[in-house]
Design goal:
By secondary structure, the protein is α/β, with parallel strands linked by helices. The chain has 2 domains: 173 residues, Quinone Oxidoreductase, Chain A, domain 1 (Alpha-Beta Complex), CATH 3.90.180.10; 146 residues, NAD(P)-binding Rossmann-like Domain (Rossmann fold). It has 11 helices and 18 strands. Helix 4 crosses helix 5. The longest helix is centred in the C-terminal third of the chain and has 14 residues. It is globular. The termini are close together. The structure holds NADP nicotinamide-adenine-dinucleotide phosphate. NADP nicotinamide-adenine-dinucleotide phosphate binds next to helix 1, helix 4, helix 5 and strand 10. One of its GO terms (molecular function) is oxidoreductase activity. This is NAD(P)-binding protein. InterPro entries: ADH-like_C, ADH-like_N, ER, GroES-like_sf, NAD(P)-bd_dom_sf, Zinc_ADH-like.
């Protein structure tokens, strides 16, 4: 069926979650080496709430237009190919989701990609460069698949990107997942499927129980046990955890340094001139890294080859992303408000259209 001439999309003026608005616009047409994708499901990320509230401003190279289509993670179906596209696959039969970068994440991807001024994905149809469309494993629903390009790939890169090609996390390693949001639950699922041990921290005992069902071996409520770094050391016979999904930032990073294994990895996901930072009178972060020979690595999502590597692993292990709640397209505002409330476990999804074609 031909795409409609007019489509609906959720827009934000970056002036508050309550000001998100659903508007009509013309359906875009694909140009050279582009495809038109009918959006089926959009999963929500914390960043989407930051953008809608005008708080996503730490990338200085990024200039947001005054109004922008909301949300950045989706899957759908290719329904039209640009007139000069060199796409050699059969796009009409390829359920697809978007990729945020090419072979490697570059500064230009930050400035021009989904974190930047590009229109995002909470819309019924969207044009993508052909290269940025990847086939979805067929065991997944649309809602599940929409959780993979950002949240799961960020978890995959946090766990595996510092290893030699072809090596992934495995038994004998312990992963520390902070909280039970989308990135952390994906890391828990990958670690469990790979035979690694997982420690999960959360503000909620009931969410910790859900994490246990997904294979978490050590559960820590960081509200009732604010000195959770001591529990991590106890659970690992004082060795510390091998890999950290550091999403907490200001209140967690120093604790992570206190319970990371010698030679371990803190994947900094969330946020030289002397040994003490003058503004805080605290030991400089670089020195903290040296004390335990730790690599501090920023993780900015990931490239196509690592997404495809991750998808092969997901397919082999049949990992299904955990979807906490599915909202209708018309409930876009309520969905983002629900995510911002922090009540969710893993992912929140907006169903834009029925699956499959
Ligand atoms: N670098 C990248 O490429 C990339 C990609 C995706 C996300 N991110 C960043 O990663 C972070 C998580 O994103 P997300 O989409 O997974 O968020 P999310 O789904 O909204 O998850 C938020 C969860 O984080 C947990 N949390 C909050 N404060 C915490 C603390 N002090 N200690 C431990 N856990 C805490 C809470 O879990 P409980 O409710 O269980 O306490 C909360 O539910 C955000 O800062 C986001 O911007 C970065």
């Amino acid at each position: 069926m031909a795409p409609p001439q007019r489509i609906r999309q959720w827009l934000t003026g970056q002036d508050g979650l309550d000001k998100l608005r659903l508007e009509e616009t013309d359906c875009p047409a694909p140009g050279q080496d582009e495809v038109l994708v009918e959006v089926h499901a959009v999963s929500l990320n914390y960043r989407d709430t930051e953008v809608a509230m005008g708080l996503y401003n730490h990338h200085k190279s990024v200039e947001h237009p005054p109004t922008i289509v909301s949300c950045s993670d989706m899957c759908g179906v290719v329904v039209a190919v640009g007139p000069y596209s060199n796409n050699t696959t059969d796009p009409y039969k390829n359920p697809a989701f978007q990729l945020n970068a090419g072979d490697r994440v570059q500064a230009s991807d930050v400035a021009n990609g989904f974190g930047g001024p590009a229109p995002r994905v909470l819309t019924q149809y969207r044009v993508f460069p052909t290269y940025n469309v990847v086939k979805i494993p067929d065991y997944l629903t649309a809602e599940e698949a929409s959780c993979l390009p950002i949240a799961a790939l960020t978890a995959w890169m946090s766990l595996n990107s510092m290893r030699p090609a072809g090596e992934i996390i495995g038994p004998k390693e312990t992963v520390l997942c902070q909280g039970t949001g989308g990135v952390s639950v994906a890391a828990l699922q990958i670690a469990s499927a790979a035979g690694a041990s997982a420690i999960v921290t959360s503000s909620s005992d009931s969410k910790l129980q859900r994490a246990e069902k997904l294979g978490a071996q050590t559960l820590i409520n960081y509200n009732s046990a604010p000195d959770w770094e001591a529990t991590v050391l106890k659970a690992t016979a004082d060795a510390g955890a091998d890999v950290f999904l550091e999403v907490g930032g200001a209140k967690t990073l120093r604790k992570s340094f206190d319970c990371v294994k010698f030679g371990g990895l803190i994947a900094c996901i969330g946020y030289l001139s002397g040994k003490i930072d003058e503004d805080t009178d605290r030991t400089n972060t670089n020195l903290l890294c040296l004390k335990r020979n730790v690599t501090l690595k920023g993780i900015l999502n990931g490239p196509r080859n690592r997404l495809e590597e991750m998808l092969r692993f997901y397919q082999e292990k049949e990992i299904r992303p955990v979807v906490d709640r599915v909202f209708k397209f018309e409930e876009g505002r309520a969905a983002l408000q629900y995510l911002y409330s922090g009540g969710h476990f893993s992912k929140v999804v907006i169903k834009v259209k029925g699956w499959m074609p």
